[in-house]
Amino acid sequence: MLNAVLLLAEAVLYFGAMVTLFRFRRRIGLGVFVCAIGVMHFLETYLASVFYVALPFGMVSPGSAVLFSGKLVMLLLLYMKEDAATVRQPIYGLLLGNALMIGLVLLLILRLHAISPLPDGRMPDIGFVDEMGWLMVWGTSLLFVDAILIILLYEKLGAYLRHMPFARILACVACVLTFDQAGFFTALHFVAGAPIEVFFGGWFAKMAAALAYSGMLVAYLRWVEDHDITLPRGLSDIFDTLTYRERYEALVKHVGRDGLTGLLHRGSFDADGEAAVAAGIRTARPLSLLIVDVDHFKSINDRFGHAEGDKVLKSVAAVLIETVGSEKQVFRIGGEEFAILCPQPHALAKLLGEGIRNAVKTSTHTSRFNITVSAGVSTVSETTRCLADIFALADQRLYKAKSSGRDRVIGEPGSEAGAREATPKTA
Questions:
Q1: Cα–Cα nearest to 321, from 294, 291, 356, 290
Q2: What is the 3-state secondary structure (H, E, C) of 38-103?
Q3: Are 127 and 166 in contact (CB under 8 A)?
């Protein structure tokens, strides 16, 4: 009787500890819950192979009846409250992790050591390690099948027991634990010589565990999981501080950025441009503006789709940064329109525009679509003393570059003709 009470107490303790980690997954991370499952895996396999207690209906191991059954229920809970992609991670992780342990440690590394005895003369029992390792791989392989099977059963029974959660969960857990008991006992019988009493005792214990865990799971889902919790504020650990710092730095890094290209966006251009023009006038240093537009971009979207068009914009953005040499000077100000604030006189800015035009044409990223760009250039002067002035002038010259054949850079009035002669007209 004492053994039965202790097993029930162990099940309640295990369930309570695990669902507490699961409940606070939004605060401490789901990885804590998953790691706890993995750590307990070794203990449950060890106990299932060597640790048994007598009950009226046979021999029972807490590792199998309590820990393994509980873990299977925890994986079902993870699937129910998260999704299949999430529950797949611990299932695959346990399988591959134990296989890796056998392949790298038991079969290779341990065999190469010259083993020294302990101070009391004892030597490590490598045979026991081999036995435990293979049992862990076999048990994990069964778990892999069990976990998939219990999820499939849970979904299948949903058509009949959707409004009876206790019966639905109990049926899933009981069926899968019966299958698992048969599979694990077979290996245990051949490896450790376990008698048939172990099978029947383990099966009865697992059915009792299925009943207890199903009841606790339904109670948890109904009275705990489906109610919001208010997280305490104030006391925190170092990981909270690091997490908020990392999120803050990531936010600062991406604020003011275009979501597609990663370039600074139009709002940043307006603010930075005004400040740059004011600084240029105050210090008498040159400042030029280039507005670059992708030629025939609409036709790319129409012919190849918007996904390919997005790739083109990303590629052009990368070429602009590489050519300019500073991402702080490059902005995406419209659909396929970019702006570059250039702290150089007009002639050098126009030369930079030509470099950009040639770089886009020769880039391996844009050559598939024969991408070209047109650009207009303007510079702060006596007649253009604010961002709106130099933007309007650069935009006007960009329009002239477009209307005179595209694939050209226009920097001053009357330069259209020279550009037309220097660059063949493109469609």
A1: 356
A2: HHHHHHHHHHHHHCCEEECCEEECHHHHHHHHHHHHHHHHHHHHCCHHHHHHHHHHHHHHHHHHHH
A3: no
Per the listing, tokens 């006007």 go with: 396
Tell me how far apart the alpha carbons of residues 43 and 67 are, in angstroms, rounded to a whole number: 8
Six token digits for residue 98: 């134990």
Whole-angstrom distance, CA of residue 425 vs CA of residue 38: 66
The torsion angle over the Cα atoms of residues 393, 396, 402 and 406, rounded to 10 degrees, is: -20
CATH fold group of domain 250-422: Alpha-Beta Plaits (3.30.70)
Share in percent of the chain as helix, strand, coil (round to 5): 70, 10, 20
Answer positive or negative: Cα dihedral of 268, 270, 274, 279: positive
Domain-wise residue ranges, the chain: 2-111+123-225, 250-422
Q: How far is CA 421 from the centre of its chain?
A: 53
pLDDT tens per residue, range 207-217:
999 999 999 99
**238: pLDDT strictly greater than 60:** no
d(CA 161, CA 246): 45
- Report which of 176, 165, 183 is spatially closest to residue 209, judged by C-alpha positions: 176
d(CA 222, CA 244): 32
Q: Three-class SS of residue 228?
A: coil
Q: Which of 225, 223, 211, 182 is nearest to 8 (CA)?
A: 211
Closest CA to 164 of 218, 201, 209, 110: 218
Q: Give the span between the Cα atoms of 169 and 154, in whole angstroms.
A: 7
Mean pLDDT of 394-406: 93
From the centroid of its chain, how far is CA 77? 21
Closest CA to 133 of 99, 90, 108: 99
205: its two tokens = 């214990």
DSSP 8-state code for residue 265:
-
Mean pLDDT of 37-42: 85
Known catalytic residues? 336
Helix, strand, or coil here: 284? coil
Q: What CA–CA distances, in Å, run from 144 to 87, 180, 205? A: 11, 11, 21
Give the integer Cα–Cα distance in Å for 417 and 426. 15
**Residues pairing with 146 in the sheet:** none
Q: Which residue in 46, 94, 95, 90 sits closest to 67, CA to CA?
A: 46
Query: Using one digit for the tens of pLDDT, what is the confidence trace for 297-328?
Result: 999 888 888 888 999 999 999 999 999 988 77
**What residues does 293 pair with on adjacent strands?**
337, 374
Strand partners, 60: 53
